[in-house]
Design goal:
The chain is built from 20 helices and 3 strands. By secondary structure, the chain is mainly α. β2 and β3 form a beta hairpin.
């Protein structure tokens, strides 16, 4: 076991340094001074240089070669699987390229924010072209002559392929579109009205986060342009945002990010600073954020609890009953922004991005033509003309920071969440009784016991299959959505 122990000791320091780099990214998106972006780019580049050197250290290869896999238990074998994959990946990517990607994507985030704020795609286009060129170069190094986009997918959903995802998404699209068209043709429920104080929203959102088990002793909530979760182990932070006329933006962004955070916080402490000490994939991660936000947070039972909290915080906001509030929370309306979309249309937003980013990577879509391609596809899918690039191809931060292959994991996470919800409801049939009082513990405990505690122990597919007792597929999600929205809209 000497080689294994030496490898894990080395890996512990690498994981800790990775956490430090993550904290630099969190700081950049929350409280870093605007003028520090160039310096932060150099800092992140330096960190990436150190991390890349450790991840490609020849001793890692020697240790891996010396370890007898059959002498390891399940945890040891899983650690070895992750380290072997990481070593193989990182030794294919030149250190200078890894550092340059870290530097350019860090600076690109600031340029994107400026372009988004001024609706000026031309301001961002040259930087974006540089990001895409670097990511193509990285993918080429990783693909070994194979498909560049499939190589990118492995960073976010190991074992997946564009062909498999396209088949799953192709099965989702017809039923989602049919349900969307029926719902938009029905009478729409009343929405909230009034002005919602930002400080009151933040106070309520912290209370809501606690109701889902978020541990403020090991986390915090700050504001950011694009809500996100960051960290692992005993330090997992989230961000949200407020809108004067839309309190749901704040509340449900928070619940979503709490789902991500609770996954990380729920991992068994024995895995801290090992490859198993983080979520196994972005699809599995998204399954946690989406089941917290939607199947739990937007359920009839939990919204009954939240309705009372809203009235305590804001008084009269135009909704007369808990049932009306449930309908308002789940309203299906046409809009441009993915993160503000309802459960039915959300996946259609993702499928648009999935298709376009494949074209960007394979070179069939030039960066200069992206706004026009986006707008044409959006109008075809949603029947609405995009009015400005901040509502179109500049709305998300993912492409600016090089996260190609990330978007499909959102829809995959929704599929996983549908499966988990079916299994959860089967095991905890009286769940709604607890949710009506704001007690989510029966659900969050089930998720922690059956999925979260294991971190990266199993592959993504096996993680979901272990929790649910069946292989993941799109049918539970579609059945859940059709039952829910047919009920709300009386279809």
């Amino acid at each position: 076991m000497s080689a294994y122990n030496d490898l894990m000791g080395f890996q512990k320091t690498t994981e800790a340094l990775g956490s430090v780099a993550g904290r630099l990214n969190w700081d950049q998106e929350t409280i870093m001074p605007e003028g520090a972006s160039a310096q932060r780019g150099e800092e992140l580049s330096a960190m990436e240089t150190v991390l890349h050197a450790r991840r490609t250290d020849p001793r890692v290869g020697d240790w891996l070669a010396a370890i007898d896999v059959n002498s390891l238990d399940q945890v040891g074998k899983a650690n070895l699987r992750h380290i072997t994959k990481s070593y193989a990946r990182n030794t294919k990517v030149p250190a200078a390229l890894a550092a340059e990607i870290a530097k350019v994507t860090s600076m690109a985030q600031g340029v994107w924010a400026e372009a988004r704020a001024t609706d000026n795609f031309a301001h961002f286009a040259p930087t974006f072209e540089r990001v895409v060129a670097l990511k193509r170069e990285e993918a080429s190094a990783l693909a070994d002559g194979g498909d560049l986009y499939d190589a990118m997918l492995q960073d976010y959903e190991p074992g997946s392929s564009a062909a498999e995802l396209s088949a799953m998404f192709g099965a989702l699209r017809p039923r989602l579109t049919a349900l969307r068209d029926k719902v938009l043709g029905a009478d729409q429920p009343k929405g909230v009205s009034g002005t919602f104080d930002a400080d009151a929203q933040m106070a309520l959102t912290r209370e809501v986060a606690k109701s889902f088990g978020y541990d403020f002793n090991r986390g915090r909530i700050d504001k950011a342009v694009h809500p996100f979760s960051s960290g692992s182990g005993a330090d997992v932070r989230i961000t949200t945002r407020t809108s004067d006329d839309d309190p749901f933006n704040c509340l449900y962004s928070t619940i979503h990010e709490v789902g991500h955070a609770c996954y990380e916080l729920g991992i068994d402490d024995q895995h801290m600073f090992t490859p198993l000490g983080a979520g196994v994939s972005m699809g599995v991660h998204e399954s946690q954020s989406r089941i917290y936000e939607n199947q739990l947070g937007r359920s009839r039972a939990y919204t009954e609890y939240l309705y009372g909290k809203m009235r305590d915080s804001f008084g009269d906001f135009g909704i007369e009953s808990a049932e009306g509030f449930y309908a308002a929370v789940n309203r299906v309306t046409q809009g441009f922004i993915r993160t503000e979309s309802d459960e039915i249309q959300y996946n259609l937003h993702v499928l648009l991005r999935f298709d376009l980013e494949q074209k960007i990577i394979n070179g069939s879509l030039e960066i200069a033509d992206l706004p026009e391609a986006w707008n044409a596809r959006f109008e075809a899918d949603f029947g609405v003309k995009v009015d400005k690039v901040s509502n179109g191809c500049l709305q998300d931060v993912h492409w600016p920071v090089g996260l190609f292959g990330y978007f499909p994991t959102y829809s995959l996470g929704n599929v996983y969440a549908g499966c988990l919800n079916q299994a959860l409801r089967g095991d905890v049939p009286d769940l709604d009784t607890a949710l009506r009082t704001g007690n989510t513990a029966p659900a969050t405990d089930w998720l922690r016991e059956n999925l979260q505690q294991f971190g990266g122990l199993r592959t993504p597919n096996d993680t979901i299959s272990h929790a649910c007792g069946f292989k993941p597929n799109e049918v539970p999600l579609l059945e859940y959505l059709e039952e829910k929205f047919n009920g709300i809209y009386g279809l």
